[in-house]
Structures are given as structure tokens and as C-alpha cells.
User: What shape does this take?
Amino acid sequence: MPELPEVETVRAGIEQHVVGRTIATAEVFNPRAVRRDVAGPAGFAAALTGRTFLRAERRGKYLWFALDDTEALLAHLGMSGQFLVGDPVRPLSPHVRVRFTFTDGGPDLRFTDQRTFGHLMLVPIAYPADMSRVVPEPIVHIAPDPLEDAFDAKDFAARLRRRKTQVKRALLDQSLISGIGNIYADEALWRARLHWARPTDTLRPAEVSRLLEAVREVLSEALKAGGTSFDALYVNVNGESGYFDRSLNAYGREGEPCGRCATPIRRDAFMNRSSYSCPKCQRPSPVARSAATPAPAVAGGGRQPA
DNA sequence: ACTCCCCCCTGTTAGC
DNA sequence: TGCTAACAGGGGGGAG
Assistant: This one.
């Protein structure tokens, strides 16, 4: 649910409100929230007590907080995870899974997660002497995201075109490019005028450049708007919604006019979810443009635009 | 080595 | 009104 702009907004909130503070107590209310931590709920809580948040880092949709030069708290928000900072005596909502209080007696930090797809875990991390950036071992398979220095556009283009899949599946594959989810995949494809089912191995270099440009634009613009909130499930650490939903051109706009050509946006079933696109601006393949019929069968897919 | 699909959850909403 | 099914921003693990 939260994609790069939402997760980055949360990271910045933790950096501002939590970094530099020392944990007084850690409580795990739902063991599922720490299911990937080998120490279990009690071990996790004990290991976090007395530790200090030193910095707040992110790659794609993963967050981690250095506790010293050898360990970090790794977090993923899943579909509905939130980090909320607030008055420690406010009522505990039913979806709070983990709670941290701090030795300064100030605002506490609550990991709240309705659907429990998110998780927290204490992980080893080997920071070099100069404390330069490193990524925790459990997420080494996550590719750099398009807003970080380590992202290599040429390498991404080459790997993308080598894939035998559809372009939207590739955009959602966090081991190829990270940080993009269903909303921003649809938005980037709309901006780049590419159909979601386009076979990656038919993409021309110029189309890949256009796509990457669109990805960077939409992620940056959404970040400036504080992310996209359709409902109360995404909010920043202060409980405030983002307002990028007002700027969406495709996602969630079935039947509404395309901002470029006024053709109604369509919704297709895709990977047990939805794909929104403009049937006129985003043709299945360049060949379709010259054909009298709407579109030839999608190569290698077996998936027809229903 | 890839690619794809199911499944993990809870809550809301559309449809009968 | 009330039940049921579909759907929701993600990703790991295993099947093929």
C-alpha cells in the first residue's frame, strides 16, 4: 500500500521525531508483527530496550533505523502499516502491534497495522568505519530505487529489456527497480503512454527512457504532496494524509475522462488487482496503431484485455 | 535461473 | 436489512 513517496514521508517523520532518542520500553502486542525476527516477541522487545535510534534510512519500500554500527531495526509497512508519533498517554488503538516509549518521556512511537502484512525485525548490519551507507542483509535482493544515488539507469534499461514479461510486472518487481507499487506503476505508464501488458523485450530504448523519466517525475511529485491517501490507511507519523490522490491521472479513475484525450479510463484485472489505463493513449503495442482492429494478441501473455 | 501464483490478514463496499 | 463476494496501496516462498 504505501509506496516510495509514502514510505519516504514516514522515514522523514521518524528522522525528525525519533532519531536521537533512546527506547525506554518496547512492547509487542501482536507476535505476527515480528514474525521474521528469530528472537520472537519477548526477545525482540528485550533487545530493543535501551537502544538509541541513530538514523532513519530507506530503500524502496523498506525502512531501517541504525541502533549502533552493527545492528538496525528493519521495517516494512506492508499494505496498512503506519508509524505514529504522539502523546504516550493517548488511548491505544486496536491495531497497534508494537509500541516504543522513550527515556525522555516524550512522544511514543506506535507501529499500527490493520492487515498485519507489515513487520519489524532486529537485523545485523555492518557499517564501515566512516558509517557510509550499507543495506541490511535481509534486503540485499531489493534493487536500488530510482531516487537514490546507487540507481543505475543504464543497468536498469538493459535488465528490463532482457526480461520476458510485461512491463507493469517488471515495474512491480522490487528486485529490478524498487519503490513502485500499483498506484505509481499505473501513473508512470500513463505518463509514458505505455500499455501495462507491453512485453518488456519489445521496448525501444527511447521508450525505456521515457518510462524511467515518468517514474521519477511521478514519485517526486507525489513525495512533494506527502504521498497518496485514499483512506485512513496511509498517514504520516503525525496522522496526516497526503494529497497526491488529487493529481492521479489513471489509478482509481475508471470511467473518468483521460486528462490528455478525454477517453474514459478503463480498469483491467491484473495479478488479482487492477490496472487502470487510457485505452487510446496507451495502446498494447506500437503495431496496434496501424492495425484496423483494436489490438493483436499480446505476445507470450495469454492475457487478453477483457 | 526465471517467471508466476498463492497466500498471509482485516475491513469496507458492492451486489444480490 | 443482511449475507456474501470482491477488492484494497505488498512481498515471500515455492511450484513450474
